[in-house]
Amino acid sequence: MRNKYIQIYKDIVDDITKATYQPQTLLPSEHELMDKYGTSRETIRKALTLLAQNGFIQKVQGKGSIVLDTPRFDFPISGLVSFKELANQLGENHKTIVEKLELLPPTEDMKGILQIDSSEEMVWEVQRVREIDDEKIILDKDYIKSSKVEKLSREVCASSIYEYIEGELGLTISFAKKEITVEEPTKEDRNLLDLEGFSNVVVVKNYVYLEDASIFQYTESRHRPDKFRFVDFARRTKN
């Protein structure tokens, strides 16, 4: 089967996420995985390499593959992924509530952020609340240039804007600059999120660019601080 190693990778990730394989324990051996999935050693090794590259295991020569600690609510710092793409890691009970979708003239601040020169350029303003396990714990505030995304619907916003941009519009989202700060909740934060007892929110600001290096989106993701760890996985390579 073509790309069978990807399916094996996803299956093992699911087992790690569900704690079928506990942190600091060994995965089954290559031979055991070959028997389990009915495939070749090469396919298993490709799956294990992908697991190592993404921080799920550490391969130790002569010992095997050690499962690393990957808590369910870890959010990667270096990745550029949508909430929908992360949803499988956040449990089954999650949903997106679209609070606002408007096409508006940009403010002076937003003109600077999105590098807008034209007086005719409009900006999509989207506010989405992310609810996990019946608690409203993320407020995403997106500002998107209408010259790059002419049409946007509430259905798209409730599903995945990135999926729409890449799949329907054929644009390539390339990279982002990120800033992380801790701030006092605004009145808007307290109205839209379940923040009783919390005196701050963690704000991740994303400046997102297309493959031609043009900025098209600015996002503020405002998180309740008790639910997330913002992590990165760094692997040293020798020169």
UniProtKB/TrEMBL annotation:
Keywords per UniProt: DNA-binding, Transcription, Transcription regulation
UniProt cross-references to SMART domains, sorted A to Z: HTH_GNTR, UTRA
Protein name (Swiss-Prot/TrEMBL): Trehalose operon repressor
The HTH gntR-type domain, residue ranges: 2-70
Lineage of the species this protein comes from: Bacteria, Bacillati, Bacillota, Bacilli, Bacillales
Gene name of the record: treR
Gene3D superfamilies: Chorismate lyase-like (3.40.1410.10), Winged helix-like DNA-binding domain superfamily/Winged helix DNA-binding domain (1.10.10.10)
One protein family per Pfam: UTRA
Organism annotation: Evansella alkalicola
